[in-house]
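Researcher: Next entry in the queue.
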Amino acid sequence: MTTQDFEDVLSRLRHSLERGFALRQEAMHALNELDGYDWSGIYRLEGDTLVLDAFVGAETDHTRIPVGRGVCGTAVAENRNQVVEDVRELTNYLACSTQTRSEIVVLIRRGDTILGQIDVDGHRVATFDERHERFLEAVASVLADRWD
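Model: Structure for this entry, 148 residues:
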């Protein structure tokens, strides 16, 4: 995956006329086109629970995740993004798919308030790194600006 791939997605989202759920769904479709982004979704933070919002990929049983549980819940509890090279090494992993090997979770913030998060699963070990985190932070910023 190239820097140009990331820039193309960001440009598409920045120029989109959509807002709210429609923009979040458009973003997940754009991420789904990237190599290694095998499941892409957004969870909204509602109180102390993450609620599945827009997503592209296989259905998941994890439509509501308590803060502190799994990679997604840990991101909110620790107030920091999560980049997991191999989910099989985690004791608190919530398996959505037996094919998932790596995961990245990036918080969506407006100021100090966490609105939700972008959650991406990959079927290869070590799919995601700091470049992916920075890219998804930029996507999160676009989504936060037009969250509602």
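Model: The beta strands are 39-46, 49-56, 64-66, 82-84, 102-110, 113-122.
Researcher: Noted, moving on.
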